[in-house]
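Researcher: Here's my situation. A collaborator sent me these components and asked whether they could plausibly form a single complex. I don't have experimental data yet, so a predicted model of the whole assembly would be a useful starting point for our discussion.
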Amino acid sequence: MTASLDTLLQAPILAGARVRAGTDADRIDGVRPRLVVEPRTAEETAALLAWASRERLTVVFRGGGTKLGWGRVPTAVDLLVSLRGLNRVLAHEHADLTATVEAGATLEEFNASLGRHRQWLPVDPAGDEATVGGAVATNDTGPLRHRYGTPRDLLIGVRLATADGRLVKAGGSVVKNVAGYDLGRLVSGSFGSLAALVGATFKLLPMPASSHTLSVTFHDKDRAAAAVTRLNDSQLEPTAMELQARRTATGAVAPAGREGPPYVLLVRFATSPAAAAAQVEQARALVGDGEAITGDGEAALWRRYQRRASASAGTVIRMSWLPAALAQVLALVEEVGRTEGSVELVARAGIGTGLLRIDGGVDWQIATVERLRARTETVAHVTIQDAPPEVKAKVDVWGSPGAEESVASAIKRALDPVGILNAGRGPV
Amino acid sequence: MPATLDARIVRELERISGGGSIVRERLELLTYECDALPHMRAEPALVVLPSSAAEIQAIVRICSREGVPFVARGHGTGLSGGALPVPGGVVIGLSRLNRVLDIDVPNRRVTVEPGVTNLEITRRVAPYGYYYAPDPSSQQVCSIGGNVAENSGGAHCLKYGFTTHHVLALDAVMPDGELVHLDSAMAGGTGPDLVGLIVGSEGTLAVVTRAVVRILRRPESVRTLLAAFDSISGAGAAVSDIIAAGIVPGAVEMMDALAIEAAEAAVHPGFPAADAVLIVELDGPEPEVAELFPLAEQICRRTGATSIEVATSDAHRARIWTGRKAAFAAMGRVSPNYYVQDGVVPRTKLPEVLGRVRQLEARCGLRIANVFHAGDGNLHPLICYDEKVPGQADRAVEAAGEILTYCVEAGGSITGEHGVGMDKREFMPKMFTDDDLDVMQRVREAIDPKRLCNPGKVFPTPRLCGEVPGPYREHPTEKAGLAERF
């Protein structure tokens, strides 16, 4: 545990490994990892974990580093294990709509490869460097969640390196398979606290031949919420349905990077050409006139949207609500924003989940998190995605544990008995 | 393990919900000796029929304290022996927990007790224009509790996923008797997905007492065609080309000549005599279906369809589906007994694996019908046998095992939707290494350290005394002259 850096570096397991001392650039919430190791293979990753367990060295995994601020402030990080070296696409069975990839490949790299057969993995978290492993570990995606769910919904097989150094698999490489426990779902959203994800097999989708986005703005929150309800009740099948709302202490304002009304609804239809165009027009008839965008302009719009979603100086809160409670959520955002600073909601409006970016004094940020957690009649699962260390020091990132805590803890003890994985950052 | 339960424990179980909720008569227990995999049977000490989560909790607490194994049972339609009792153990029958507790259309979710049937959910929300997507062939009778345990699929999985994609939250009694609410769906998905772990764990991790499921808006348009082919490979090529064209059909089902013959004899769906028929269904917004359906039709023609029938009405579509959904039961028309298996291969390997099945058929002297979810490579060989002919039942089980081996060799799975249960646990090492299974077992032991919750299923553990694997053989008590079979 307290072996010196030199002693650690001389460990036989690190002979020939890509290893270096941690630097300030590697810090996680201000905590500098002692060593940064980049294994080349799944086998090396497993061996590294076995050694870490024996030596009781805490481990944090890093993919593209886009979500490294998520989680509690670590007590100490002995090993930052970068999985970027594991970045090969191992198989693309395009006729079967499946592909197997190593965890460190970025989604961009993976999708570029799948695109050769006009297929894709519709997972779109913010951050150009986001990796497959990071998306699964955090179960994070973006606007495409509306249609395609979270990464775990597309995951059909996993390869894991366990804390005791074994390489195991669960699931398989066929889209339908119920043999054995679904460990893929178990590790989805576990933030690397149960095992290292070294490889994953996904069910893919054909890349839509055409895409159109309708952008509609609203001055009034109830009208915005009613528009979402009308779309949800219709038989239209949008690919994404995003609602942005921004409020500052002085009043409602346009979302960051935009001008005009404070509520912006983006509805995307990606399907066959005639169907995409027809649905945009049907949507327009339901929710009011807006701008329909396609082609390069549409792609640029979503890229800008995604980049903004990942940038915030303050605290980024993740929360969910019942879809029909959207009007109450918008009222809550208005109520919170009226007090101080600025708040911006980025909502997966159709399914009832989203991010709330709050920017203002530290005490106000803390009070806002607590205030939202108290409003259980409107929002649930209020967790902190990203926040300055001063905020994390005062409120728990994950919130108070639910009834499932004992079950999750028992699984954690079984898979990581020494408790090295994710260095106390949670969620288990 | 006691063959019978201590009278003290029995009295305590009776007190929980009154004597009328306990089944102990040997004749009545017969119903519970097996599920829809009738060649595996075991007699429980008793069956308890609780009416509430609190009663289930009390039962599990007693079992946990006394070290008595317990098996939760829905409506007993499982095809892998997942609800097979542990001899001398307790069966917790969930049929009385059959209420639909909440229908929340604006939020597209329905809360049900585990004994509610799959189709009941769709029936209840249909007036609002919604439905529950997973549709196993047994959907009229199978329970949601069983669907959750097995992660049941159905014909529409390729596009809509399995039970696991449609369960939003669960209430479950854990093996130590703790009642927990698990909800991983609404959140951004933070924390390990315990709902996802329990769905498909075949009743080995918890007894589900309540489920919140997602309902979907009925698609605006549904179009269905029935195409006949003079070879399985022609039908297979049609499926591959449809997928390659970027079309994800709502369903693609295939039946071979023997399955067609049986379905015709049983329910007269009007299928043409052919070596294979394909049912292709596209659903979604009208403009999308209107654009893609003619494409799918063209592809069928190009790959050699000898006839194509397009459903012209809902009744017409229902008739086509009746032929498919009745296929299992219809086998009774062409064979005294049949054994249904459930393997998966990568879709592109279908022709190759079916070729091996044909050779096997010739070798083992049993007819094998094939019905499959062709879109996702999930095959259901139906092996015909006559239990009155000595040795045939054993040969059927052996042939089924061989087919599963072909599936694994082709890179597939030993089960796509029926579960491993008792039936296929010995095949697990074909798919998984000792380490793979050990890690799964560790998860299990973390949750059920006493191994009382549906023990003996899923994992190839050493057989417990008294379990009867393989085709029906005399129960030990029968052999000893202590019981007789009715």
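Model: Some features of this prediction you could bring to your collaborator: Residues 295-310 of chain A form the longest helix (16 residues). Residues 131 and 287 of chain A are 36 Å apart (CA to CA).
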